[in-house]
Amino acid sequence: MQTEFILLEKMLETICVPMKSKTSNRRGFPAKHRAMTFGQTKGRFNGVVGLSYYSKKYPDLWNEVKRIGDLIAPFEWKSCHLNKNVVCPKHKDSKNATLTCIISFGSYTGCDLMIEGEKQDTFYTSLVFNGAEKEHWNTNDLQGTKYSLVFF
């Protein structure tokens, strides 16, 4: 599976994954974290559903994210959140209407995904779970560069 990510990792090395706003809109998440959303999104102010800003800005990257999502997600997904070095606090994705498929990659150790208190292996290994129902978080021991793709 690791070879499937070579192109995506090279592409990510050529861009700066943007820092989210100084204040996070998700309770408990770090105020500054690096992330992008690809696929369908709903406009924050106008409510219009359409292709995300980053899908349009980085069409080659979006195509690679789609390729991987179609390869690993066993359900029809509409959006993908790409995280870089994000350590998530305990939370549930209350607005998710579907299952979640997550996979992590990069040159890192630590930052394990915990679901309901059980450690899960997502290092180049996809995992499907219900993020709206199950509390999940990362251990706070990240070393290196970690990317994760969260399809929903």
Describe the structure.
This protein has 152 residues and is an alpha+beta fold. It has one domain: Double-stranded beta-helix. It has helices at 6-13, 53-57, 59-72; strands at residues 34-42, 49-51, 79-84, 100-109, 113-115, 118-120, 127-129, 136-138, 143-151. The chain is globular, with a radius of gyration of 15 Å.
Q: What is the structural class? A: alpha+beta
Q: Looking at the structure, what is the overall shape?
A: globular
For the record, what CATH class applies?
Alpha Beta
The CATH architecture can be given as: 4-Layer Sandwich
The radius of gyration over CA amounts to: 15 Å
Overall mean confidence score, pLDDT = 91
Helix and strand string, N-terminal first? HEEHHEEEEEEE
Distance between the termini: 20 Å
Briefly note the CATH topology name.
Double-stranded beta-helix
Number of domains: 1
Q: Which residues form runs of ≥5 with pLDDT under 50?
A: none
Q: Give the strand line-up of the largest sheet.
A: 2-1-3-9-4-7
Biggest pleated-sheet summary: 6 strands, antiparallel
